[in-house]
Amino acid sequence: MDKLLFGDNQFFGINHMSEEKARAQAIRFQHTQAILDVLDAAYDEGIRTFMCTTHERVAQICDHVRKNPGRYSEFVFYPGMPYAHKYANAATEEGMLGMLKRLIPAEGILNALFRGGMSLAAKDIDGITTLLIDAEMKMFDGLNTPVIFLQNVVTDLLLGLGITDAFSIFAEHVRKRYGAEPGFITMNLPMLLDMLDKAGIDNPIVCSSINKVGFRMCGGIEAYDEAMRRRKFRAIAMSVLASGAIPPREAVEWVCARPNLQAIVFGASGASNIRSFRKMVDEYWNNKVPANAQLTSA
Amino acid sequence: MIRICVVGLGKMGLSHLSIIRVHPAAQLVGVCDLSKYFLDVLKKASGVATFTDYEKMFAETKPDAVIVAVPSRFHAGVVKAALKHRVHVFCEKPFCLDWGESAKLASEADGAGLVNQIGYHYRFVAAFQEMQKLIELGSIGKISHVLAEAYGPVVLHSKGSTWRTKKEEGGGCLYDYAAHPVNLLNWFFGMPDQVGETVLGQLFSSQTDDEVYSTFRYRNGLSAQLSVNWSDESCRKMTVKVSAWGTLGKICADRQECQVYLRDAANAPAGYGKGWTVRYTTELTQPVWFYLRGEEYSAQLDYFMRCIESGERKNLNSFSSAAETDRVLSMMVEDARSAPQVPRKADVGVNVAARV
Predict the structure, then answer these.
(1) Which of A104-108, A154-158, A186-190 has the lowest mean pLDDT?
(2) pTM
(3) Domain A4-297 class, CATH top level
(4) CB distance B290–A156 less than 8 Å?
(5) How deeply is B263 buried, as exposed, middle or buried, from its count of CB atoms within 10 A (0-12, 13-18, 19+)?
(6) Are both B166 and B188 inside the same structural domain?
(7) How far is CA A146 from CA A143, A205, A209, B118, B151, in A?
(8) Do B13 and B155 share a domain, yes or no?
(9) Nearest by CB to B46, which of A26, A161, A191?
(10) What sign has the CA pseudo-torsion B163, B169, B170, B172?
């Protein structure tokens, strides 16, 4: 895994600090070419992994990368699914079953009906879950997706509900069908690690908010540090700037010093911001506690 | 430990269930829904006792508290049964479609000394809490006008039908969306004395409203405008914003930030000065033990649990405050119904033609 991953929040009008900024970004990136220009800048800066949602516009990025294999020979996607608002809005408008009907792709309808029908009859979440994963993964056909993430809304909903099986179903399907490693995005890292242990997922990849002000780090900074020191998992930090609440240099210096940190996901809207962030990470990365610290200290 | 159960496993019920199941003070003793499918999945996964009859669940599990998240028109029935069993109640918004029923249940719950709370989660959004505090302190002087807005992309096509798209079941933009800014206005300023110029418009829905506009007037001279539309595709998700103009400044708050303009430093509370001060959610929001869709959803349930534990019975978002919100919503329905009809375009055309 590369130490720097490029995120996509900024492209889709997501900003946890300001609705005005979010709208300005949505306007700026409403044409896909504007997104591609920024991705090109990141790629040319050596950042090859795009950690993205399954927003419908990501499909256009996928098409572009597929059409230009020479330009993007090392381009890697880390898809995160599902794009939750799509499901939540559909559920409000059409109910739970209506939502499933709408979002299962028409092309695989026979297969879908068969598996969906079976799963409803057997009262088993397996069929419906794998069905939805396949629907979300369609846009990445033929592209390199070595890690596939479960988005935090779903990860944390299942965590709270205590549906352990769902995590192993996701992990197994992603491994078997896509030859990918399962990843999990969460706002509740320490609690999730216990759940993933229970689900029998060894050395999981987990992406969570990790920042100096403890923003959206449920359990608190100390519990996160303790987990990173003692638990066997691969940690990715997101929201390292806490949506701009921490000055970049201070934020990067702090996050790079976390024990066992494997990677940082960050978003930026222009070449110069990408470059300065990469340089800062390069500068501080070696300060972090080494990846095998738990083995030597045990 | 507080023995708690959940009735209704739709979108909000599942979210509440997930949050409360891992609350340090909660012991989940039962869930109730009409969908056997979801119940079986939950029972298999987490071993919780499941029911299709809430009366039976109350009788058998003897809970201390219940979370009610059934479609709005069924709220009253479930809440009544819960009060009969002397159970503390957290109920989803809006409370009851008939405000008289809301008021009656409020006095029953208060009389029984039970915690009674409605899920108006915007009162637990840190930026709106900050705004409420500043209004109470009189920081922007005498407030003359307020604009309360809510927009989002819920109904974008003329298809689909659930209870949320049916007016008689408590669906529609008025109950689902407008209830939130109305509830915030009541929290900030109390109930309006007059509701006028209400528009309950249809854009795509055939059985309910998609847009809501209204003007509220208060005895102290304050006026408020409500502008709500749940068919606004330009918003990624529900966006609520309240702006208030006062003699000494202005406040604009949404989920992310509280922007304050003060004309004078003399009247400024701690942390504020002359001109603009912006306080963001990242600094205002208190940490929660578990995060699902926003700190406010966890914070409101944690508050409910703490009120039960501490004996606090004058809680925020009480049934009686929600009954006031229900009452304003019904004033708006009445106002829209009695408003003189503006001739439709086709009629105007005929009149013009006749005059020529």
Answers:
(1) A104-108
(2) 0.91
(3) alpha beta
(4) yes
(5) middle
(6) yes
(7) 9, 12, 22, 45, 38
(8) no
(9) A161
(10) positive
Please tell me which of the candidates A85, A92, A163 has its beta carbon nearest to residue B236.
A85
Comparing CB atoms, the residue among A19, A22, A157 nearest residue B292 is A157
pLDDT surpassing 50 at residue A167: yes
- Work out how many domains chain B is built from and give that number: 2
Tell whether B20 and B106 lie within a shared domain: yes
Q: Using 50, 70 and 90 to split pLDDT, how confident is the model at A94? A: low
Question: Within this chain, do residues B115 and B127 fall inside the same structural domain, yes or no?
Answer: no
Q: Is residue B338 part of a domain?
A: no
The pLDDT of B257-264, averaged and rounded, is 96
CA distance A169 to A186: 18
Q: How many Å lie between the alpha carbon of A218 and the closest alpha carbon of chain B?
A: 5
How far apart (Å, rounded) are the C-alpha atoms in residues B198 and A230? 60
Indicate if B103 and B174 belong to the same structural domain.
Answer: no
pLDDT confidence of residue A135: 87
Q: Which domain holds residue B276?
A: 122-283
Q: Mind listing the pLDDT tens digit for each residue in A168-217?
A: 999 999 999 999 999 999 999 999 999 999 999 999 999 999 999 999 99
Residues of A in Cβ contact (< 8 Å) with B256: 15-19
